[in-house]
Specification:
Layout (H helix, E strand, L loop, with lengths): L1 H15 L6 H4 L8 H4 L32 H8 L32 E2 H10 L18 H11 L8 H12 L4 E2 L1 H11 L8 H43 L1 E2 L14 E2 L2
Parallel strand pairs: 3-4
Antiparallel strand pairs: 1-2
Length: 261
């Protein structure tokens, strides 16, 4: 129980700090679900700051990201995505070629978070998206003038925090996603190749990140109840005659328990 709990808490801490290992990258290159790793390509280095100027994504503090999420980085990503097919070559992902598939005609199309990042960074920037309400460049003409040349470059530096924010809009904290999850999420804030709704995107990113937060909170509550019932409450009863609830294990030494609640 204890070793498993330590491993689970370590994984939880890595998730909170956005430093969790990607299972697709952890596998050997031969068995990896990451198409780049499967080909033996070097993985991208973690980018904490892209050097982007201008404002941060609206309400990005609610993402609890370790690093800043510049709006220019989000635009750099969206400018490379005009449709779901710009995200990955879905039908040729390693997961579609796994042995002994139950339905080879409809194989699982699993895109790892790491592969998404590498695909976007190496993709071609098509155009600076427009605000669907005003028709103006997202972030304003000044931001486009300041950042346009940088984000249009192939291999442009894009922060991992921004890429994680985009991925979480459809993956909700998971390390893998599928086209059936990506498509409806993308349509919500990227209804066509020309426009991008920043407000809807920010809301979707916060919802995606909140699922991770709810899961972490639930796990902490479960641990509190379990350890309280198995260890803490019995210890206080036996050695200090104090009863804090949490189960019936342990008896007060004096025969009389002093309840705190």
């Amino acid at each position: 129980l204890i070793p498993a709990a330590i491993a689970a808490n370590k994984s939880m801490f890595n998730t909170i700090t956005n430093s969790r290992p990607d299972p697709a990258k952890s596998a050997s290159s031969e068995n990896s679900l990451d198409p780049y790793a499967a080909k033996g390509a070097a993985s991208d280095e973690f980018v904490s700051a892209s050097g982007a100027t201008g404002p941060s994504l609206k309400n990005s503090a609610l993402l609890f990201a370790k690093d800043d999420v510049p709006l220019a980085d989000i635009v750099a990503i969206m400018g490379r995505i005009s449709s779901i097919d710009d995200i990955a070559d879905w039908k040729n992902l390693p997961s579609t070629k796994l042995p002994n598939l139950s339905n080879p005609a409809n194989p699982p199309m699993l895109l790892p978070r790491s592969a998404f990042k590498q695909s976007i960074r190496s993709g071609n920037f098509k155009s600076w998206p427009k605000d669907p309400t005003t028709g103006e460049p997202v972030g304003g003409a000044d931001l486009e003038a300041a950042e346009g040349k940088r984000v249009m470059q192939k291999g442009a530096l894009i922060g991992d925090a921004a890429l994680d924010a985009v991925f979480d809009t459809w993956a909700w904290g998971a390390s893998l996603t599928t086209p059936d999850k990506v498509a409806p999420a993308l349509r919500e804030f990227r209804p066509d190749a020309a426009t991008f709704d920043v407000d809807k995107f920010a809301a979707a990113a916060i919802r995606g990140r909140s699922v991770t937060g709810i899961g972490i909170l639930t796990f902490i509550v479960i641990q509190t109840v379990a350890y309280g019932s198995l260890f803490i409450a019995p210890f206080l009863r036996v050695f200090f005659d104090i009863d804090i609830g949490f189960g019936q294990l342990g008896a007060c030494g004096s025969g009389v328990c002093h309840s705190l609640f």
